[in-house]
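Here is the promised in-class demo. Please do not try to memorize the tokens; focus on the logic of going from shape to residues.
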């Protein structure tokens, strides 16, 4: 496998040598394989860059790499398109690992920025979990030059820099870590936007106006073992007093049919959170976004020991989570009923992991990018 990868990378670099003969333009390219549509962060960033300097061309290349062979073949052609835009851009911004960025030899004038798609450092990823159940093979990671060629890596706060450095394999290059929370924090902290979002959610689901709403947003799991535990939570809720909205991870294939519950596919987790009174999660990084709402957060950690064994965290889960941790659905609901929460702890958690930025988060990221375009 490693020999095949080496040959493929060599062939890519030969082809890329000629692609690099195209002249560099006043252009920034935003690349993601998280999903096939631009993220909110990318959309906000594009608009702000054009607002500051409309002479800059912004190209977004977003395509999820699926596992079937037809999708993989299509992705090869997408990579050729990536090569052209990388070779003719001054700055590349990523929110995931990108094969063409890490495996190819680029022009010296190119600046590569890893923005990553999740806020804060919660679950371990990248180099922190090589050869673990949820991680990549160290041999494949080495062969695929995982997370190589970055000039800068964004961290959501000073307190998370070392964790991001470890995850990307830059622990000995901390000077490449820059405190720069994601652009979407502008919207997550905007009270007017939160109110508008709440109104939109209630318009879509008017039943949520009648009772207090509980949002449950579990992390992604590759298997379907979570169905029985989700069902336990569904059965534990008193629907004469509460609404229950469940937001499964976008990659989840889990299907549960229960008319007592709203399984939402129309809004983001944070958007549903704007119209919720209580939030339940487990090990999802969405806890950083939810903490910005300063509402009660509860943790339904029915498989904590096994999950830690397969993935692990950068923080002490039992000590650092901004809410009560329960192993059973009945315990979760009992804590909600009893009002066992501390909003001050939720706010402290948000402040610790998401740095405060003056003048706007999107603007700071955009100006950082533009500054490095001028250096090219």
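The designed amino acids, position by position:
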């Amino acid at each position: 496998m490693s020999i095949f990868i080496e040959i493929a990378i060599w062939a890519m670099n030969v082809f890329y040598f000629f692609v690099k003969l195209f002249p560099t333009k006043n252009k920034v390219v935003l690349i993601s394989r998280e999903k096939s549509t631009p993220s909110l962060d990318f959309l906000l960033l594009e608009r702000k860059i054009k607002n500051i300097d409309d002479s800059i061309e912004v190209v977004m290349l977003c395509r999820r790499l699926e596992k079937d062979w037809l999708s993989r073949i299509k992705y090869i052609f997408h990579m050729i398109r990536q090569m052209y835009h990388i070779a003719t851009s001054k700055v590349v911004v990523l929110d995931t690992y990108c094969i063409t960025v890490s495996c190819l030899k680029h022009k010296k004038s190119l600046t590569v920025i890893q923005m990553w798609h999740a806020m804060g450092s919660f679950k371990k990823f990248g180099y922190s979990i090589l050869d673990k159940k949820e991680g990549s093979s160290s041999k494949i990671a080495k062969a695929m030059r995982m997370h190589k060629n970055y000039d800068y890596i964004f961290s959501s706060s000073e307190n998370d820099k070392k964790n991001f450095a470890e995850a990307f394999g830059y622990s000995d290059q901390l000077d490449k870590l820059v405190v720069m929370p994601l652009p979407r924090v502008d919207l997550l902290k905007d009270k007017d936007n939160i109110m508008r979002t709440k109104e939109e959610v209630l318009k879509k689901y008017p039943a949520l106006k009648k009772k207090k709403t509980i949002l449950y947003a579990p992390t992604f799991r590759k298997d379907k073992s979570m169905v029985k535990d989700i069902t336990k939570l569904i059965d534990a809720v008193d629907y004469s007093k509460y609404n229950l909205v469940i937001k499964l991870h976008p990659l989840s294939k889990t299907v549960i049919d229960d008319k007592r519950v709203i399984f939402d596919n129309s809004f983001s987790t944070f958007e549903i959170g704007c119209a919720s009174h209580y939030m339940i999660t487990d090990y999802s990084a969405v806890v950083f976004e939810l903490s910005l709402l300063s509402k009660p957060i509860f943790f339904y950690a029915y498989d904590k020991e096994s999950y830690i064994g397969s993935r692990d965290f950068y923080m002490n889960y039992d000590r650092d989570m901004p809410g009560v941790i329960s192993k059973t659905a009945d315990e979760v609901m009992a804590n909600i009923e009893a009002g066992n929460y501390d909003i001050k702890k939720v706010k402290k958690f948000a402040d610790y992991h998401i740095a405060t930025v003056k003048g706007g988060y999107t603007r700071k990221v955009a100006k950082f990018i533009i500054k490095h375009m001028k250096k090219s």
